[in-house]
Amino acid sequence: MVGYDDVAVARFASPPLTTIRQNGPLAGRLLAWLDRCTEAGAQVFLGDPGRSYFPKSGVERLALYRVQTTRELEDREIRETSVYRLLLTG
Protein backbone atom coordinates (compact mmCIF):
# COMPACT_ATOMS: atom_id res chain seq x y z
CA MET A 1 0.00 0.00 0.00
CA VAL A 2 1.25 3.46 -0.88
CA GLY A 3 0.92 6.08 1.81
CA TYR A 4 0.49 9.81 1.42
CA ASP A 5 4.19 10.39 2.08
CA ASP A 6 5.13 8.05 -0.77
CA VAL A 7 2.91 9.98 -3.18
CA ALA A 8 4.33 13.32 -2.04
CA VAL A 9 7.87 12.07 -2.53
CA ALA A 10 7.02 10.84 -6.01
CA ARG A 11 6.04 14.35 -7.02
CA PHE A 12 9.32 15.91 -6.04
CA ALA A 13 12.09 13.36 -5.79
CA SER A 14 11.69 10.51 -8.24
CA PRO A 15 14.67 9.95 -10.55
CA PRO A 16 14.29 10.10 -14.34
CA LEU A 17 12.53 7.04 -15.79
CA THR A 18 15.32 6.45 -18.28
CA THR A 19 17.81 6.37 -15.40
CA ILE A 20 15.56 3.94 -13.58
CA ARG A 21 15.24 1.61 -16.58
CA GLN A 22 19.02 1.42 -16.99
CA ASN A 23 19.74 0.26 -13.45
CA GLY A 24 18.62 -3.37 -13.47
CA PRO A 25 17.13 -4.57 -10.14
CA LEU A 26 16.73 -1.03 -8.89
CA ALA A 27 14.75 -0.21 -12.02
CA GLY A 28 12.12 -2.83 -11.26
CA ARG A 29 11.66 -1.67 -7.68
CA LEU A 30 11.42 2.01 -8.59
CA LEU A 31 9.05 1.43 -11.49
CA ALA A 32 6.84 -0.70 -9.24
CA TRP A 33 6.85 2.14 -6.69
CA LEU A 34 6.00 4.76 -9.34
CA ASP A 35 3.21 2.49 -10.61
CA ARG A 36 1.81 2.24 -7.06
CA CYS A 37 1.95 6.01 -6.77
CA THR A 38 0.01 6.30 -10.03
CA GLU A 39 -2.54 3.73 -8.84
CA ALA A 40 -2.93 5.72 -5.60
CA GLY A 41 -3.91 8.78 -7.62
CA ALA A 42 -0.61 10.59 -8.03
CA GLN A 43 0.27 11.99 -11.40
CA VAL A 44 3.87 11.04 -12.20
CA PHE A 45 5.54 13.32 -14.73
CA LEU A 46 8.74 12.50 -16.58
CA GLY A 47 11.05 14.65 -18.66
CA ASP A 48 13.16 13.32 -21.50
CA PRO A 49 15.47 15.18 -23.89
CA GLY A 50 14.83 12.80 -26.78
CA ARG A 51 16.83 9.74 -25.76
CA SER A 52 16.47 6.87 -28.20
CA TYR A 53 15.90 4.34 -25.38
CA PHE A 54 13.05 6.24 -23.69
CA PRO A 55 10.03 3.90 -23.50
CA LYS A 56 7.43 4.18 -26.25
CA SER A 57 4.64 2.62 -24.19
CA GLY A 58 3.26 3.29 -20.73
CA VAL A 59 3.66 7.05 -21.10
CA GLU A 60 1.66 9.87 -22.64
CA ARG A 61 3.43 12.88 -24.15
CA LEU A 62 1.96 16.08 -22.74
CA ALA A 63 4.29 18.68 -24.21
CA LEU A 64 7.14 19.03 -26.68
CA TYR A 65 9.68 21.83 -26.34
CA ARG A 66 12.35 22.92 -28.79
CA VAL A 67 15.25 24.31 -26.79
CA GLN A 68 18.04 26.28 -28.36
CA THR A 69 21.50 25.02 -27.44
CA THR A 70 25.03 25.29 -28.82
CA ARG A 71 27.27 22.93 -30.77
CA GLU A 72 29.67 22.98 -27.82
CA LEU A 73 27.03 21.21 -25.70
CA GLU A 74 25.05 19.17 -28.21
CA ASP A 75 25.32 17.66 -31.68
CA ARG A 76 22.68 20.12 -32.92
CA GLU A 77 21.51 23.68 -32.32
CA ILE A 78 17.95 22.78 -31.30
CA ARG A 79 17.21 19.99 -28.82
CA GLU A 80 13.68 18.58 -28.60
CA THR A 81 12.63 17.65 -25.11
CA SER A 82 9.28 16.33 -23.89
CA VAL A 83 7.23 16.04 -20.75
CA TYR A 84 5.32 12.78 -20.27
CA ARG A 85 2.81 11.37 -17.82
CA LEU A 86 3.26 7.81 -16.55
CA LEU A 87 0.12 5.82 -17.38
CA LEU A 88 -1.56 3.19 -15.24
CA THR A 89 -0.23 -0.24 -16.19
CA GLY A 90 -2.86 -2.35 -14.49
What count of domains describes the coordinates? Answer: 1
Strand numbers in spatial order across the main sheet: 1-3-2
Label the structural class.
Answer: alpha+beta
Count of runs of 4 or more consecutive helical residues = 3
Radius of gyration: 15 Å
Strand content: 25-35%
Order of helices and strands: HHHEEE
* Overall pLDDT level: 75
State the major sheet. Answer: 3 strands, antiparallel
Percent helix: 25-40%
Global geometry: elongated
Poorly predicted tracts of residues: 1-13
Tell me about this structure.
With 90 residues, this protein is α+β, with helices and mostly antiparallel strands. It has one domain (4-86). It is 34% helix and 26% strand. The protein has three helices and three strands. It has helices spanning 4-13, 17-21, 24-39; strands at 45-48, 59-68, 78-86. A three-stranded antiparallel β-sheet has the order 1-3-2. The longest helix is centred in the middle third of the chain and has 16 residues, at 24-39.
Which descriptors would you attach to this protein?
90 residues, alpha+beta, 34% helix, disordered N terminus
